[in-house]
Amino acid sequence: MEKKLKVAIIGCGGIALGKHMPGLAKLKSVEMIAFCDQSEENAIKAMKKFGTADAKVYSTYKELLDNPEIDVVHICTPNKTHADIAVYAMEAGKHVMCEKPMAKNSKEAKRMLEASKRTGKKLTIGYQNRFRNDSIYLKKACQRGDLGEIYFAKAHAIRRRAVPTWGVFLNEDEQGGGPLIDIGTHALDLTLWMMNNYKPKYVVGNTYHKLGKRPNEANAWGSWDPEKYKVEDSAFGFITMEDGATIFLESSWALNTLDEGEAITTLCGTEGGADMKDGLRLNGVEFSRMYTKKPVLEAGGVAFYDGEDESAADREIRSWIECILNDTEPIVKPEEALVVTEILEAIYESSRTGKPVYFNN
């Protein structure tokens, strides 16, 4: 009988319950044997729903990670804790999937990358939007050269009124920021991945705390408390890459706009363009005429994927476990996630100082 990977979950809140544990539960190659959360009640509920008959609940992550049976750890905790838990886990001999963003800042993200290289343990970050059908299709198109040299892009993460009012989302100390580090991180990761460009030259950015200072009853998740709203409600960045390419990053939880959309990208290249604003659309010039195409993305309708359709979240978890079993590189590499964190940090710094932030690559 083939040995199953023993998986532990640290942080049994919404993202663990909504993505990680359901995805792992679909795989015959894993067993969830350990659970830890600040709320013992949350950990017990998760264990009862997803754990093996002999699964255990732990009061601290170090106690859990000292269990030699555990092979893989999924970290679903606030951003401030990512680095400490991930480094301890890898030093304890575990492979690590950590929820996005990689860490609260680049210094902590570098600690995680160094620990992975030092221990030989695999590390990936939870950027599940790479695993959507439209994302996979567009990535293949970019790799084939359909867009040519991509020299201008937009990373979109805009909500009209959808501020997350639960947990620690509004706590700057715990999270490191607001929509920029929460949803802007997905849009930027997707954009850099499509461009295959991870060498920023300099960044100019601005953050705004305008609407968060006001009471609001129209929010998707209930009204927020302006006194507890300690992060930005909008952030915008202008990123220039070493090769001259330009990326505009827009992120907001609350903005007076009708132009909404998040975890999507717009790409402009020498041979063609693409955007995800209204489903995936490709554009260019063919036979002396401009064209717009919308590819078919159902299961079996694209060359790179056959069979029953699979959610992006399930595909992400499955590919992660398979990379461990097959000893291959994860789709989301920690080196790439580090660059995302560095750029987000630079936008925050540029906003604070009013100056461009230059990179030394």
Along the chain, the helix and strand elements come as EHEHEHEHEHEHEHHEEEEEEEHHE
Q: Sum up the overall morphology in one term.
A: globular
Helix content: 25-40%
The CATH topology assignment of the largest domain is Dihydrodipicolinate Reductase, domain 2
Largest sheet report: 9 strands, mixed
Task: Tell me the number of structural domains.
Answer: 2
**Which class of secondary structure composition applies to the elements?**
alpha/beta
Q: How many helical stretches?
A: 10
**Average pLDDT across residues?**
95
List the uncertain runs. Answer: 301-307
The CATH superfamily name of the largest domain is Dihydrodipicolinate Reductase, domain 2
CATH architectural group of the largest domain: 2-Layer Sandwich
Rounded Rg: 21 Å
By CATH reckoning, the class of the largest domain would read Alpha Beta
Q: Reading side by side through the largest sheet, how are the strands ordered?
A: 14-13-12-11-7-10-9-8-15
What is the distance, rounded to the nearest whole angstrom, between the alpha carbons of the first and last residues? Answer: 48 Å
* Overall number of strands: 15
Beta-strand share of residues: 15-25%
